[in-house]
Design brief:
With 278 residues, this protein is an alpha+beta fold. The protein contains 5 helices and 17 strands.
């Protein structure tokens, strides 16, 4: 990933391997908003004590930086689950209830999710020109949220995993994410070869550390997405609180950052039916 400094002070990160494709995805940092501490400054959460008017202004600044109408994005009420909502322009401006992932093939329709340590996941099918975005914390990860999003794209648009490019954005990293017995036991029950995603840096009797990045990447690889088509940002939010909110590192006294993604307007190329042109 690489950062972009926008004219209004907003800073976003984008996935490098999507740069030449007709799809846009921007992950916000905490820079460029108007909220005071502890939500400073580009906070998108109204449930953590910030004023709704400030949050609305922040989202307007984020949208303006990206050239998006702030009334258009489809949002979700995230519950750390695996539900996926298929949306189109009839859903513009809506909030999908009890949903942690969105999919669409509607060009230009922005999809928006929020985070503060959980993993942002983006899936782009370059053949069917369809898009999926997913929010995966530890519960979503062990219950297969990334794979559920991919399967939903298969069912809705005929997506073949071999054609998907995936991005795993900034989230709490494997050196920071100490978890308890509940997480470890659930992963043991639900994930194939789960021990590859855990380390015990403080000894076998201490709590393990969970690698959300590799757990989600493995889920996609085992579903058929080629490993070389998965970009992992490798940015640990808990170790980069100057740029990103971290629920763990900031002990819940923080805001939420966001991922906004949309498909470009394009058409199939006449000479190459499996290619899209802007």
């Amino acid at each position: 990933m690489h950062p972009i400094q926008h004219e209004n002070g907003v800073i976003t990160y984008t996935f490098d391997h999507l740069s030449a494709l007709p799809v846009a995805a921007h992950i916000s940092t905490r820079h460029g908003g108007i909220s005071p501490g502890p939500w400073d400054s580009l906070n998108f959460s109204v449930s953590r004590g910030d004023e709704p008017e400030r949050v609305q202004t922040n989202f307007g600044r984020f949208s303006a930086a990206l050239g998006i109408d702030p009334a258009q994005p489809v949002r979700t009420h995230q519950v750390h689950g695996t539900a996926v909502a298929k949306v189109d322009w009839d859903d513009a401006g809506s909030r999908q209830r009890a949903t942690d992932a969105l999919i669409t093939d509607a060009a230009g329709l922005p999809l928006f999710l929020v985070f503060a340590d959980c993993t942002p996941i983006l899936l782009y099918d370059r053949v069917t020109h369809s898009l999926g975005v997913c929010h995966a914390g530890w519960r979503g990860t062990v219950n297969g949220a990334a794979a559920s999003t991919l399967w939903a794209m298969q069912a809705a648009y005929g997506t073949e995993p071999k054609n998907v490019l995936a991005g795993i954005g900034p989230s709490i990293g494997p050196a920071s994410y100490e978890v308890g017995e509940e997480v470890y036991l659930m992963a043991q029950a639900k994930l194939p070869q789960p021990d590859r995603f855990f380390t015990f840096p403080n000894g076998a009797d201490a709590n393990p550390y969970f690698d959300l990045w590799q757990a989600n990447a493995a889920q996609l690889i085992e579903s058929g997405v080629p490993q070389e088509q998965i970009e992992i940002a490798g940015i640990d939010t808990a170790q980069n609180t100057a740029d990103f909110f971290s629920h763990r590192a900031e002990k819940g006294q923080c805001g939420l950052f966001g991922m906004l993604a949309w498909l470009g307007d394009c058409a199939r190329s006449g000479d190459a039916p499996n290619r899209w042109i802007i």
